[in-house]
């Protein structure tokens, strides 16, 4: 989308944006004071909504399909190099449209098996990222088992990136690698509002495969899992769609809450250097690497959908249509966390998501968010089972811990979400040609 289109969208003369901003915003306004958000749809609010629908009203966004999605500029022939010798792809890379994330347990307890797996995975990932199969799809010998499962044949590289992570278990007593352990790689501590389920938590290795074609991403994970059999077993996986983050130059997509996500993400090179890439302060082999935190965050979709938009905006701290901070007018206006309205109320509530997460209010802490929406269909209670596959990269896991300790205890969003899955991984730098991921561990 061009800047012109983007600007045009935000200036659309619809009543929606102004109405949204003009609704009461102070913490003591009726939406918060009298009627709980949960109670809204079952009480007086239900009639209001029904009336609006009957009248054909509502607050539809004034834009046509395609203007605000993440489909612009998709080139299925685009590929990224694997052997860069610097950072792994899939971190600073502009987020692709789909992601398959999987973690694995090491079932073999020998360092050699781990080493062989990392070498074989590296060779395979390099092939896959070029859009090539990892062996014959249809071997000439008809009785042979095909080395590549074939479903991505001719789909093009589709901007595939596969990013490997090493969990704390790699450095435990099993493999003799304890002296190589990244300084800060520990299982995450218990965090406020954790609702973690064993089936979505942990892992000795992680693979994040992102691509503009979901089948290309799935094919990569499937074939790497297949290669790993005997050395690793699958642990948990999430299939993500509709990137819920923005890289430099990309339009900002929306998450399943319907809000723009990624507006104030890390985009500038200096922020990657200062907040994402590991420098000299860690074990030497991690230089140029990063730390990955993955969280499976379930959304209480039905409850969120029953909430009035003015209240949703208070929860996030931004307008729903434009994505502007409640202290401003345009998406990229810098939030002013002390601005007050005419009644003297703080415009961006102090317990809103952005007020709690912003670097201005966290001693400068920043993380790179590279999340995706997910759905697991319908829950056992008949409700939509969906949420955010939150994936973040940072030069120290302490950044996530500091933010989540605050968000987990005070965020207005907690009424609508639950962290049900979690993993932490050290991301080694990318190998140079002729080398493989994690090679320095075995020197
Ligand atoms: C389902 C869970 C979550 C949802 C729906 C969500 C949604 C959003 C939205 C809509 C924004 C505003 C737009 C933007 O600047 O990107 C935002 C900002 C942000 N979020 Fe989240 N978020 C979630 C979880 C988290 C978690 C777990 C963290 C970190 C522990 C986090 C950290 C941040 C940060 C740092 C910002 C930027 C704040 C700023 O500087 O203005 N978010 N999020």
TrEMBL record:
Domain Dyp-type peroxidase N-terminal as annotated: residue spans: 88-241
UniProt KW Heme keyword: yes
Catalytic activity: heme b + 2 H(+) = protoporphyrin IX + Fe(2+)
First-tier enzyme category under EC: oxidoreductase
InterPro entries: Dimeric_a/b-barrel, Dyp_perox_C, Dyp_perox_N, Dyp_peroxidase, EfeB/EfeN, TAT_signal
Chief location of this protein within or outside the cell: other
Record localization: Cell envelope
Compositionally biased region (Basic and acidic residues): 1-22
Signal peptide: none
One of the GO BP terms on file: iron import into cell
Statement: the UniProt record of this protein carries the keyword Lyase: yes
Ranges where the Dyp-type peroxidase C-terminal domain occurs: 252-430
GO terms for cellular component: cell envelope; cytosol
Any one GO molecular function term: metal ion binding
Keywords on record: Heme, Iron, Lyase, Metal-binding, Oxidoreductase, Peroxidase, Signal
Necessary cofactors: heme b
EC number, UniProt record: 1.11.1.-
Note accompanying the cofactor annotation: Binds 1 heme b (iron(II)-protoporphyrin IX) group non-covalently per subunit.
Start and end residues of each stretch annotated as Disordered: 1-37
Annotated family: Belongs to the DyP-type peroxidase family.
Stated role: Involved in the recovery of exogenous heme iron. Extracts iron from heme while preserving the protoporphyrin ring intact.
Protein name stated in the entry: Deferrochelatase
Organism of provenance: Microlunatus endophyticus
